[in-house]
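Case study B.
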Amino acid sequence: MSAVAAHADVEAHVAEADYQERTRRNRLGLWLFFVSELFMFGGLLVARFYLWRENGEIVRPELDQNLGLIITSILLLSSYFMNRAEVAIAHNDRTNFLVSLLITAALGTVFLVGVVVFEWGAHLRPWDGVFGAVLFGMTGMHALHVLSGIILILNVWWLGTKGHFSAEEHWGVEACAIYWHYVDLIWIFFYPALYLIGRAVPA
Amino acid sequence: MTLFSLGLVRGIIGQVIAFLAGMALVVVIRALMGLPAWAAEPAWVVGGLVSIVGFLVGVGALSDWLKWIRGEETPLRHGPPEGKPAWVRYFEVDYNHKVIGVQYTVWGLFLLMTGGFFALAFRTELVQAGIQFLGYDLFNSFIGLHGIVMIAAILLGVGGMANYLVPLMIGAEDMAFPRLNALGFWINVPGTLLILLSLVVGGWDAGWTGYPPLSARGPIGYQLFFLGVYAVGLSSIVGSINLIVTTLRMRSKGMSLFRMPIFVWAVFATSLIQLTATQLIGLSFLMVLVERVLGMGFFDPGVAGPGQQLMEGGGDPLLFQHLFWFYSHPAVYIFILPGLGIISELLPVFARKPLFGYKWIAMSSLAIALVGFLVWAHHMFVSGMNPDLRIPFMFSTLLVAVPTGVKFFSWVGTLWGGKLHFPTPMLFVLGAISVFLIGGLTGPMLATVTTDIPLHDTYFVVGHFHATMFGGFVFPFFAALYYWYPKVTGRMYNETLGKIHFWIMTPAFWVQTLGQMTTGMMGMRRRIADYDPTLGAGNIEAVHLVITLAGFAIALGVVLMVYNFIQSAEVGARAGVNPWRSRSPEWQIPSPVPEHSFPSPLRVVGEPYDYGRPGAYVALGAAGDD
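Model:
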């Protein structure tokens, strides 16, 4: 091996170690952001159980159960495709990676339509007392996160079509995937709080 | 170079344009929906929100992220911008943590003086009973502005110290996320400008705590206040992420957690609170914001619906107080923990003795942070919440005294038998201990339910609170400014002026805080423009006069300090590398610190506070060099 090639090899090694260390920092930073957001979503859950009470009993407004079940299933399904995309890029399978991303974004959009068009379009309005306030507060804050997740996914997809990301270096994909799973996880707590727990009263 | 090439100027222009664009957007949307085109409240809210983004785009804090969206590489620029004078970088987006630290500190000092101006204005009004020159509304807006501007100033001061010192103290080349760091500073500027702008739309007249239903029905100024606090809170959160990752992942070789300078521990504990609790003040203010705009019934029991008709089945104001104090009590530990860290950091240097009980000090910061999350409802003893909750919250609050007592014990232990030196920073450290002691000792009276009920909402609380803030932040912050001034500028401040500052400010503050407690015992209520002159057997006006004069004396001290710093930057004597004979890493490199702080990687070879013992704490260069 020539001296120049050996030097280039060392430099590549340093750059790779640098990338790995930066990714470790990024990963820790992202998880800290999640911890932070957890307190915000937790505050909304506190508001829900504080305000949706009648004489000490936990209540909830009458909501469309089928709609809740369908959008929840769709969001969970989207997490599967998000994971597929991440695994695909880790194996340099670019076609599968790009297709899975698009499916994830599409399912996320269906979820968003389900919340914004159908749930918000039903009988309750934001100004309808505590039921309207908490329902729109929680779903609104969550929908904002889903929307930002879809934008991130589309951004990653677009960069992917331009040849960015590789099996070795795909922190952008990983970040996007963890974020999407996180938003999914929040809904796992929000769905029963909004749709299942407590006695249903006509709103 | 033109004025327009300054980032700060571009940011403010961007903010104004975005404000108008946001308002126009609301007008257009409302016109399209067939509503009356102009509605002040939504227009100001959307305008204010968009204006924050406008500022960030204008100043250039988002440009690298916008490039990442397009997949472009963004190498970090080092050194001052090309073709411009060196001072310009302080008014621009700069990614060096030392520049950002100075930006934080200077903007924090500016806000500290702005907040002080509001205080002097309403203190002057309080000299006599009756209304002399501030109306009721303006008085109320000024007390709120004094509160929130000071809180922003303290957060910025903490951010300044942490950003400048933590990477230097742990031997890191910079913070973990330099771009996030710059964003974290710059978002404060539009945020605080919005808070000040609230004065032109009626101010806000129910205090900085923003309790609904008053805040839900008050002037539009409240909306700008909420948005401004949201921006400042966002800065806290991204700043804390940055500091935690930097501390955990970027320490130099040999810098184990229990060999870090104690200030880094304090900042770490503070960051844990900032990371989590800040979300709750953001959420609670956001909920009031949407309650006002959309009529969502979170807090106001009789919520105003669209068209302002009163609707049934609104929310619960107590919920707001729970969410709000879940941040705002831990917030005081955000303010004081770095200050207490400064005390522990500086005492061994000036006592030439090891820090007494290093590990206990480090752990007590974490303990205060943890217990701080369990005490919020002691602000609500008379709010009408379930009375059974008072007792557990009383006990958890009293528990805070234990880790705080550990710190006091360590400070006394460090001073004991030391070779004490008394330059200005040491004087401020001792002043801080004495002032924080009075703040701490009045704490249990307010934590205990039986004594809190008569004292609640009186000036006794004001006196207690200001003693903890001055002892926990202001005095240590000033000590830190004097102590690290030679490191930042390379020149010594004027020692005589510094001592005059101390000897004016400390007695003045003692008079002020004890005076406030006295008026509180006489029956003076907080946050009122007028009072009964016969309180305290007719002596209350005299006490108010003394407090006000003391307030002006404190302001004089601060002006002296600022004058000292500006003057000494030109004419001060060269400081040299290590004027305080400190063992800490930042004092082993030149003053002012070069662009890349450490010429070679830092190695830890000893204990941080072994003053008076042989051997060093850190060494520069490879292992073979020494």
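The mean pLDDT of chain A is 92. The remaining cases will be described in the next quarterly update.
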